[in-house]
Amino acid sequence: MNNTFNIHRFGWYARVEFRENWKAYALFPLVILVIQLGAIYQLCGPLRDYAYYKQLTGYMLRPYPSLLFSAGITLWLVGSFSFRYLATPQKSLFALTLPVSAFERFCFAWIVTVPVSLLLVYLFWHFSWGIATPIIKVIYPKAFVEYNKYYGVGIYSSVFIFVYTAAFMLGAVVFGRFSLLKTLSFVLGISVVLYFIKLNLLQILIPDTTKMFFSPAPYWGTFLNIETASGLNLWPRSTMQLPYFVWWVYCLPMVLWVITFLKLKEKEI
Q1: Is 60 left (phi over 0), alpha (psi -120 to 50) or beta?
Q2: Which among 26, 84, 199, 263 is most buried, taking Cβ atoms within 10 Å?
């Protein structure tokens, strides 16, 4: 079958998939809720210290990092399940008998992983904080929740969601069984290797360095703070910051999605 997209055929395939795997997909909203409740409990940790709480004049709770964290974890899990399920030998063989293209199967898994999961995460995040906020204010009158500022949530944070999710999608197709753990180990290993390569390269290029600070995350590559032996504190700016930003935020997720589709198509051959 040609890699075309037909909305009626896609809708039929989506109904079949949900009917066969509704129990597994129903677990993911529960995972989102558990993550949110855990994040709220963790954020209120300092308030449970009575001696510390008595000294406070006010305490601000910042909910947006919990939205970012739960979105990342949920999309990794859903992506690993959806694409691992599509890439199993039994599923690939069964797909050959279905009147549906590989592109439609990929689109179904992608829609479930990215837009549907993001929407569910936001709804459950809003629901859980909407219930928790008045309870927190009753138990801890000095606490208040700040919804007006996106503390800790920058544009580069989208890498945590989209690039890593695309990596888990690809890992699910390539690694197969235990793909979540294998992909996580691979991503962490690559990050550590890149960190030490960058560290050694900068020490060679700038030998007069006593201290050097930069993010271990490769997508924060333009952040650098250097302290020299003469006492200078330098914050060099990269002229490649915009291309670096465009690559990590916009290009790399799409590249990984295309590779995932091609690898998924290979499984059917």
Answers
A1: beta
A2: 84
pLDDT digits (tens, 9 = 90+) for 68-125: 888 888 898 888 888 876 666 555 445 555 677 778 888 888 999 999 999 999 999 8
> Euclidean distance between the first and final Cα of the chain, in Å?
12
Query: What distances in angstroms separate CA 252 from CA 118, 218, 256, one per listed residue?
Result: 19, 13, 6
Q: Write down the number of H helices and E strands in the chain.
A: 11, 5
Enter the DSSP assignment of 239: T
Structural contact between residues 171 and 80, judged by C-beta atoms closer than 8 angstroms = yes
Phi, psi of 196 (to 5 degrees): -75, -30
Distance from CA of residue 33 to its chain's centroid?
Answer: 17
Largest CA distance in the chain: 71
Tokens coding 250: 């916009």
Q: Are 191 and 183 in contact (CB under 8 A)?
A: no
DSSP element (H, E) containing 210: strand 209-213
Pull the structure tokens for residue 72. 């990342």
Give the model confidence (pLDDT) of 23-77 as tens digits. 888 888 888 888 888 888 887 777 777 777 778 777 778 788 888 888 888 898 8
